[in-house]
């Protein structure tokens, strides 16, 4: 007899003592099980910084749980199901429970094993609550969901109306990168013995950018509130050559593995607003990312179903471009810079992800599933529920418009306005055709022409298609597009 009455399984993205299955755990009667699945570590070409963060955070959590008096069985097994069976063999087939898994794959594994799952509280919106909202919608407009969230959660509202009279400040938050701007300092994290052990095991020289403990995650939250929240809103859509994180929070990895909770993150931002330390346009923009977009994307992942990620509504079948796996395989300064940033630290903020990486995959007709796999493997915050709707729906419009009513395609002019990447690039964002034409500009118009019939009934695409009809150099542009696509396939453009 072991003395345990229950086995509780803590996945690597539920690292919280206060939430999930641990919130009801009893140190005297519950055995905490964490499984470091070798399949998880080796089944994909994971970015080593991502693997380091996931594994070291999990091991640190196991240590913290032991310090709280829990018995923790942290074991390395070939797969998660094998690990669970090994635990049962050692301790007996005790009642086994976990919080709702964060992916369809793990949910299927738990169901096949007979693991009981309890409703997750790692989000502010339960899946049943979101399903009730989504089932009533003709189109799944995030802004509508967000406004209901504000009222339901009592955030930045008075009497059901938005504070300062506006639900969002998007129009105020689209400033291009300022000149000679001094960006705030970034927080770094000292590596302890456990971090170094994990890094050595992986053969990786870890950066000092990402905390792997609850204490470090809280420091990161405090640092963001003090140094970055005030400037976040107006510059959230900008990208620069001289700073990679700008005023972005860098909190998504901690939220996505449970080291931080959305409720406490929002509370800190609201406290700063109430103290007069951050303006409404920045606080509202940040709050919208947490209670709006993050909750919406998680809800849509489950609502749209397991087959959603196989969507390919635009019949995009180009193989993944060489430049995605080697930043030196392109002369495009924006793409080379962004992919290089991903290579270095497994992270870039949402605008390079959307405006550069996803935009390129979209206008080159890159296979959505190949691009999705690359995004999932290379970003430190790339949970399955995050990447599937963001890539398939928003990034490459592979779902036939179920999530977004229009594709997020953009030419070089927009990239030039919102970033500093075009300065010094060999390509000219103003040119559509010719040897020096920006590939984004060429491919944007070529993409519209290729899908002219598909988008002809989309009222939100009318202006773009009218612009396409006015092009006098379309034949030359289409020839240039063929050259560009062939060069991108070779890794020479």
Automatic annotation (TrEMBL):
Gene3D superfamilies: 1.25.40.80, Deoxyribodipyrimidine photolyase-related, DNA Cyclobutane Dipyrimidine Photolyase, subunit A, domain 3, HUPs. SUPFAM superfamilies: Cryptochrome/photolyase FAD-binding domain. The lineage of its organism: unclassified sequences, metagenomes, ecological metagenomes. It comes from freshwater metagenome. It holds the Pfam family DPRP. Transmembrane segments: none annotated. InterPro entries: Crypto/Photolyase_FAD-like_sf, PhrB-like, Rossmann-like_a/b/a_fold, UV-DNA_repair_photolyase. This is Unannotated protein.
């Amino acid at each position: 007899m072991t003395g345990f009455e229950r086995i509780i399984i803590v996945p690597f993205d539920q690292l919280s003592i206060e939430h999930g299955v641990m919130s009801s755990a009893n140190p005297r009667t519950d055995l905490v099980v964490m499984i470091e699945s070798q399949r998880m570590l080796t089944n994909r070409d994971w970015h080593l910084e991502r693997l380091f963060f996931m594994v070291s955070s999990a091991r640190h959590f196991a240590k913290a749980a032991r310090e709280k008096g829990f018995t923790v069985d942290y074991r390395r097994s070939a797969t998660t199901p094998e690990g669970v069976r090994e635990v049962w063999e050692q301790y007996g087939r005790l009642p086994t429970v976990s919080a709702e898994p964060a992916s369809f794959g793990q949910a299927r594994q738990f169901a096949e094993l007979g693991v009981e799952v309890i409703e997750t509280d790692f989000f502010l919106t339960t899946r049943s609550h979101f399903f009730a909202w989504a089932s009533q919608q003709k189109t799944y407009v995030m802004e509508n969901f967000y406004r209901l969230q504000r009222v339901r959660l009592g955030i930045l509202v008075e009497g059901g109306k938005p504070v300062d009279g506006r639900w969002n400040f998007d129009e105020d938050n689209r400033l291009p990168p300022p000149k000679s701007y001094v960006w705030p300092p970034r927080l770094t994290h000292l590596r302890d013995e456990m971090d170094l052990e994990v890094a050595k095991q992986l053969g990786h020289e870890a950066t000092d950018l990402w905390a792997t403990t609850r204490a470090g995650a809280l420091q990161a939250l405090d640092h963001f509130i003090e140094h970055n929240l005030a400037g976040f809103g107006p510059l959230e859509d900008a990208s620069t050559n001289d700073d990679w994180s700008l005023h972005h929070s860098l909190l998504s990895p901690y939220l996505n593995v449970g080291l931080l909770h959305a409720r406490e993150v929002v509370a800190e931002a609201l406290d700063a607003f109430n103290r007069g330390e951050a303006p409404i346009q920045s606080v509202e923009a940040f709050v919208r990312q947490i209670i709006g977009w993050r909750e919406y994307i998680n809800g849509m992942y489950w609502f749209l179903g397991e087959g959603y990620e196989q969507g390919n509504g635009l019949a995009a079948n180009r193989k993944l471009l060489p430049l995605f796996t080697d930043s030196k395989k392109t002369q495009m300064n924006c793409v080379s810079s962004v992919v290089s940033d991903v290579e270095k630290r497994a992270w870039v903020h949402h605008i390079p992800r959307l405006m550069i990486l996803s935009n390129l995959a979209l206008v080159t007709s890159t296979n959505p599933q190949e691009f999705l796999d690359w995004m999932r493997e290379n970003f430190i915050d790339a949970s399955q529920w995050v990447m599937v709707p963001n890539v398939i729906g928003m990034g490459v419009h592979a779902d036939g418009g179920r999530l977004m009513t229009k594709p997020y395609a953009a030419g070089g002019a927009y990239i030039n306005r919102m970033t500093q990447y075009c300065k010094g690039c060999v390509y000219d964002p103003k040119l559509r055709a010719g040897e020096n034409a920006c590939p984004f500009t060429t491919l944007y118009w070529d993409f519209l022409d290729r899908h002219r019939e598909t988008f002809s009934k989309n009222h939100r695409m009318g202006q773009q298609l009218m612009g396409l009809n006015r092009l006098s150099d379309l034949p030359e542009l289409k020839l240039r597009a063929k050259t560009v696509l062939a060069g991108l396939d070779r890794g020479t453009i």
